[in-house]
Amino acid sequence: MRSTTGHTFGGHAVAPWTSADAYTTTAGCFLFLVENPHNDAPTCFECKDTQCSTYCYPSYGPTFGNGHDLLIHQGGDTGASYTTFESYTDTLGRGAATFTGDYRFTPEDYEVWAVT
Question: Average pLDDT, whole number, for the chain?
Fold first, then answer.
């Protein structure tokens, strides 16, 4: 995805997203960074455990991690999306400021791809 501040990042989920209001736990999920305000090199963030969850809910977009480590949803004044590092290893040590410099961000654009 790309934030309105021009930063590019995202996540890869192994299980397909549904609107089932449920967690799906699988191995192989990760978050990634392409561009951030700290000028860090592209980085992949692995699960702290061998498996990570994705959360599926009708009014949310892609949601990664048991603690909603990366979440897109409509709500609040700016579409209150946010990041934490509860389920993924924060190898850069920047916590919630890793992707956009702030805990909350506004998505400018995002793509969801499916492999069939």
Answer: 85
Q: Cβ-count burial of 59 within 10 angstroms (0-12 exposed, 13-18 middle, 19+ buried)? A: exposed
CB neighbours of residue 55 within 10 Å? 20
Domain coordinates in residue numbering, the chain: 2-105
Could you tell me the pTM of the whole model?
Answer: 0.86
pLDDT band at 51 (very low <50, low <70, confident <90, very high): confident
- Which residue, chain included where needed, has tokens 């700016």? 78
Q: Report the C-alpha gap between 28 and 75 in whole angstroms.
A: 29
Q: Mean pLDDT over residues 73-79, rounded?
A: 57
**Dihedral over alpha carbons 35, 46, 48, 51 (to 10 degrees):** 130
